[in-house]
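In this section we walk through a basic example: taking a raw amino acid sequence and producing a predicted 3D structure, encoded as discrete structure tokens. The instruction is simple. Fold the sequence below.
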Amino acid sequence: MGAPLAETAADDTSWRDALSTRILAQWRSLTTDEQDAEVSYPNFSPQYDLPKCTGEPMIDLIRPLQPGRNGIELRCADPYWVQNLALQLHIYRDVAVLQNPIKNGEIIQPEHVSMIRYDTGELGKGFYLTLADVVGSEAKRSLRTGTVISPDMIEAADIIARGQPVTIRLKRPGIRIEMAGTALTDGHLGEHIRVRNDRSQKILSAEVLGADLVQID
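The resulting token sequence is shown next.
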């Protein structure tokens, strides 16, 4: 989408500042919450200036804005020129970071994690924005202090163990029945596992609702 780049001479605003203002305005129009954001131009020295242009160069985004590296095209009508620029859109958020090392298979506790400000454009593997998203999860491998936790590093911890007694709930409109059973596999919250009805010995598939409670679909 084309948009004019503001004149820079009248108020001593550099072309970088004018361009950054427009880029940030467009980014904020795409988001629903206030974000700490800024734009940088890693490929250009502070002394670099754009070619002269009568009027205002137009800005075209090569693709929709996203945190991290973006490409834009500047076009001038008089004299005609086109210039492609790379810019870095920095979106700073508080993300979950390990403040203590943990071992493979260890359950993440509140004291293991803190929220630290990071440029999310540099976190290509993902991140978590609340402690509740990671506390209680199981580490899939050993992790060092200072690691930004990403989805590939953790998984939901099992709250039901194979062979454990469970309550099997059957819930239908107007009906609720509970019976004693045994878990035949480990399971985490929301996972479907195999259970056995201790009375009928029938094998069932049920969703884990709690530490000793499952529900038949």
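Looking at the output, two observations stand out. The first strand starts at residue 3 and ends at 4. The chain is about 5% helix and 40% strand. In the next section we compare this with other chains.
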